Amino acid sequence: MSKALKAIWENVYGLLVDDGSLALGALAAVAIAWLFAAIATDAFEQAGGPLLLVLISALVLANLYTAGRRISRAR
Amino acid sequence: MDLVNLAVAATPSFIASSVEFVEALTIVLAVGTTRGWRAPLVGAALAALTLAVIVAVIGVALVTVVPRHVLQIVVGVLLLLFGLRWLRKAILRYAGIVALHDEDLIYQREVAELRAQGLKKNEWDWVGTLISYKSVLLEGLEVAFIVIAFGAGGAAAMSAAVWGAIAAGVVVIGLGVALKQPLTQVPENTMKFGVGAMLTTFGVFWSAEGLGTEWPGDALSLFGILGVILAISWASVRMLNAMHPSGAQVGARNV
User: Which domain holds residue A39?
Assistant: First the structure.
């Protein structure tokens, strides 16, 4: 039973997470956007979405740059 | 629900589900052609039944118990994780860092493994049933997740997403039955790239909505978000090409 549960957990986890740093970065981006939306003044309160988009874009670029560098070092 | 919102839920659901159905079909076909059809078809039917129960229980609980803004943020974050995973892998494939997904190679490998395991003629083929059950259940779980994610906008969006997935299933299974071979002509890598971008787009959209942000133009802003994600993806492929002009072809798990 515990073996089956472990297999289910691994499959569900694998469905969502391939690279731990990318997943953690995405969670951090949502947390930053949430903090921003919570403390922003009226003029900027709708900027949470665009901010999240910018953070996710930067995250993708940074993650793939790191992956590229890692491969260069490994060769 | 207007046509734009309907298309926004049904089209990505159709494309994303097609990719998953193609992958499940490859395994069921491999089992069927090497070990006979009864066991894999029973396995696939049992997996479909399991999926129906999972979707009914989780889907009903999500819609009836969880408040809308909590649902938006939960679905948004899950979509973001799910979409970024697909997008990252697709970018690495397009840049030549990871080998392209080859349905024919997967089929041949599965057939060879199944033949090596042998078959006892007078016993029920539990190996065939289990392999088919597992592949349909895992790919089906992804379809269920995709449907719930794209349908998170409400009952009409959910209905559109469900119909998108059903249409994908009918088309892929129909083609599989007609051709009796894996659908290698389906541009799976391009579709996965598109799906990764779409899932990430929806993830950003729903996460921000859940945080209380209203996007300008509401659902129409999805096209703008998608444009940014595609531009970033293109820039990432170019960046990786510049770093590794001759590619790398490393295993997906090693990047």
Answer: 18-74
